[in-house]
User: What shape does this take?
Amino acid sequence: MNLANSTFIDLFAGIGGFHQALSHFGAKCVFASEIDKHASQTYHDNYGIVPVGDITKIDEKDIPAHDILCAGFPCQAFSISGKQKGFDDVRGTLFFDIVRILQYHSPKLILLENVKNLAKHDGGNTLKVILTHLKELGYAVHHQVLNASHFGVPQNRERIYIVGFHHSIKKEHFNFPIGDNNPVCVFDILEKNPTIAPIQRDDVVFKHTYESIFDNEGRKVLPNKPIQIGIVGKGGQGERIYHTDGHAITLSAHGGGIGSKTGLYYINDQIRKLTPRECARLQGFPENFKINPRDAQAYKQFGNSVAIPVLKAILQQI
Ligand SMILES: C[S@@+](CC[C@H](N)C(=O)[O-])C[C@H]1O[C@@H](n2cnc3c(N)ncnc32)[C@H](O)[C@@H]1O
Assistant: This one.
C-alpha cells in the first residue's frame, strides 16, 4: 500500500502519535477528534489542525473520506488498573463509534492500539468481539502485543496493535515487525540541564546494587529492561527507583506516588522523575515537538500516547 498519497483520520487523537508516524510516510490527516481540550491544544500547536470534540456526537457522514482510520481508543475500561467493565463501560463502547465510521467509509486500512490487557479481558471475549466486528465489516485483521522496548526506545511499554486490511486491497497476509532490540537506556534520553527538582526524602532505601557491566572492548552491556534499585516510602506505584542503564517503566496518564506517571530514576547521585521532554523522547516524539506548557497535562498526554517507533515499524511492514 502506498502510504505517501494516502489520507487518514485520527480518532481519539490525543497529541497525535499516529499522526507523527503516518505523516512520516507522507500520509495526510483529513480529520481528528479529541475530547480533552488540553490535548486538543497540543494537537493544534503541532499540526495546525483543531480536532473536533466528542466523537459520539459526530455524524459519520460529516467525516471526510479517508484511506486509513487510526484510533488509540480509550483503554481504561480494559486496563488492569481500571475496573474491567469492558463494553458495559461507556468508554468501552467507544469502539462502536469506530464501527459506525468504518461501516460508512470502508477505509482501506485500520490501525488500532490498546492496552495489552485487552487481549485477556473477559477471558478473551472482548478482543473476540472487536475482531469479529472488524471481520464482518470486510477486514482481514491481525493483532499482536508489541513492546516499545524492542523498537529503539528505552521504555517498557507493551500494547496490543490491531491492523485491518479492507478486502478491496486484497492483502490477506501480514507479519508484524519484531523490532531490532538495539541496546538503549534511560541515560540516552536524559536532558542535560533538566529543570526538575530532585526528590528530598529520608525514607529512600536502595534495595539492590547494580554495577554497570562492560564487554571486552569496554562498551557498556545494557540489559534493555527496567532495573529497579530502590524504593521510597512503601515502594508502591510511583515509589520505585530505577537505574539509568536500564529502561524506563511504562509512562502512564494516571497514578500517584512521588514519581507519578514516570517512575523515579537515580541520576547524578540524586533521585528524580523524568521531565516532559524526556517522556516525549521515550515515546519517540521529535525534538521539535511542542510540549504542552502545563507539566501536569504534558505528563498525562505522553502517558496516554502511543510509542511512535512501534507504529513506524508496523507501517514499514505495510
Ligand atoms: C489512549 S488516548 C490516545 C492517545 C493518542 N493515540 C496519542 O498518540 O496521543 C485516548 C484519547 O481519547 C480521548 N477521548 C476519550 N473519549 C473521547 C470521545 N468521546 N471523543 C473523542 N476523544 C475521546 C481521550 O481524551 C484521550 O486523549
